[in-house]
C-alpha cells in the first residue's frame, strides 16, 4: 500500500468507530459531523481495498476484516502517539509534563497534590487545562490532555479511573429569588417543582442523567431548560432565574455569589470526582499523581 497521503484522522476515526459502533457518537467524540466520519471511513476502506464496517438502519458492526485490522492497528497507533509525545519531551530539554484537565473548579485537594508532586518530581511539570463541564472525555481522547479530574460516574472501556475522591452531598443552585432559595434543605422529590438546566454536548447519556436527572426517584418528571456547556454558563443562567443546577458541595463553596443560593439536597447519590486517563496512555507519573491525590483524601 502506498503510504503517501495517509491521513492519521482516517485511522483515528476508524478506531473510535470500532469502540462506539455508532456514527453519531463517533462524530461527537471527534467533533466532526457524521458525514465527515463516513467520508473518512470510505477513504480508509478505499486505501486498504476492503470493507471495514457494515452499516444498516439498525446497527453498525465491524466486518471480520475490520475486527482484525482494529486489533492490529491499535498498538501501532498508540505507539505513534507515544513517539510524538516523547519527541515533545526531548524538545523541552527532557523535562516531563502532565496536562491535567479540570471542569469548572480546581479543588484544594488537587492543588495540594500538585504542590507535593512538584516537590517530589522536579523533572515533571503539571499544567492545568480547563475542559467543558458538558464534555468530560473529549479532550482526553483527542490527546489534548494526559489526564482529567471529572465528575463520576465513568463507564468508558477505554479510560482508567486512577483514583476516586471528594465524595460530597449534592446542592441545588438557584437564583436567590427562587421559591426554594430560603429553604434549609431539599429532597430529590422537590426537583419535580423546579426546572433543571441540563448539560449540552457530547457527554454520554448515563453521565448526563446523573448530573441532571429527568425524573425523581419516585418517577415524577423533572422539567428541563435549555442546556449549557460550561459551569460559568450555567451559573449565569441560574442567576438570571432561568433554572437550577445540581452541584457538589465544593463547587458550591468555591462559586459563592450573592445572586445565587445553594441548598443541600437529600435523596440523591453523593457526587464524587475521579482522576482518569486513557488506558493505553498510563505512565508512572500519572500513577504517582493519583497516589498523591489519594494521600490527601485520608
From TrEMBL:
Gene3D superfamilies: Periplasmic binding protein-like II, Winged helix-like DNA-binding domain superfamily/Winged helix DNA-binding domain
Coiled coil: none
Keyword Transcription: yes
InterPro entries (alphabetical): LysR_HTH_N (IPR000847), LysR_subst-bd (IPR005119), WH-like_DNA-bd_sf (IPR036388), WH_DNA-bd_sf (IPR036390)
Keyword Zinc assigned: no
Boundaries of every HTH lysR-type domain copy: 6-63
Keywords: DNA-binding, Transcription, Transcription regulation
Family: Belongs to the LysR transcriptional regulatory family.
Protein's name in the database: LysR family transcriptional regulator
Amino acid at each position: 500500500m502506498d503510504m503517501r497521503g495517509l491521513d492519521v484522522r482516517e485511522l483515528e476515526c476508524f478506531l473510535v468507530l470500532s469502540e462506539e459502533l455508532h456514527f453519531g457518537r463517533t462524530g461527537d467524540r471527534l467533533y466532526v459531523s457524521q458525514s465527515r466520519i463516513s467520508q473518512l471511513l470510505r477513504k480508509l476502506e478505499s486505501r486498504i481495498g476492503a470493507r471495514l464496517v457494515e452499516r444498516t438502519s439498525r446497527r453498525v458492526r465491524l466486518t471480520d476484516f475490520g475486527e482484525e485490522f482494529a486489533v492490529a492497528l491499535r498498538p501501532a497507533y498508540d505507539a505513534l502517539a507515544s513517539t510524538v509525545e516523547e519527541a515533545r519531551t526531548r524538545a523541552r530539554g527532557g523535562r516531563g509534563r502532565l496536562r491535567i484537565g479540570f471542569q469548572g473548579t480546581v479543588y484544594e485537594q488537587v492543588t495540594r497534590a500538585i504542590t507535593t508532586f512538584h516537590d517530589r518530581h522536579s523533572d515533571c511539570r503539571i499544567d492545568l487545562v480547563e475542559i467543558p463541564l458538558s464534555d468530560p472525555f473529549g479532550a482526553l481522547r483527542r490527546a489534548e490532555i494526559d489526564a482529567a479530574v471529572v465528575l463520576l460516574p465513568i463507564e468508558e472501556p477505554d479510560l482508567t479511573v486512577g483514583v476516586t475522591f471528594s465524595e460530597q452531598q449534592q446542592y441545588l443552585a438557584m437564583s436567590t429569588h427562587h421559591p426554594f432559595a430560603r429553604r434549609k434543605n431539599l429532597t430529590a422529590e422537590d426537583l419535580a417543582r423546579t426546572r433543571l438546566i441540563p448539560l449540552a454536548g457530547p457527554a454520554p447519556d448515563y453521565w448526563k442523567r446523573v448530573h441532571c436527572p429527568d425524573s425523581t426517584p419516585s418517577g415524577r418528571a423533572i422539567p428541563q431548560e435549555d442546556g449549557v456547556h460550561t459551569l460559568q454558563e450555567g451559573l449565569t443562567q441560574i442567576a438570571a432565574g432561568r433554572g437550577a443546577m445540581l452541584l457538589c458541595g465544593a463547587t458550591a463553596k468555591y462559586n459563592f455569589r450573592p445572586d445565587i443560593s445553594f441548598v443541600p439536597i437529600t435523596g440523591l447519590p453523593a457526587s464524587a470526582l475521579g482522576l482518569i486517563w486513557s488506558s493505553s496512555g498510563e505512565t508512572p507519573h500519572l500513577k504517582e499523581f493519583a497516589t498523591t491525590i489519594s494521600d490527601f483524601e485520608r
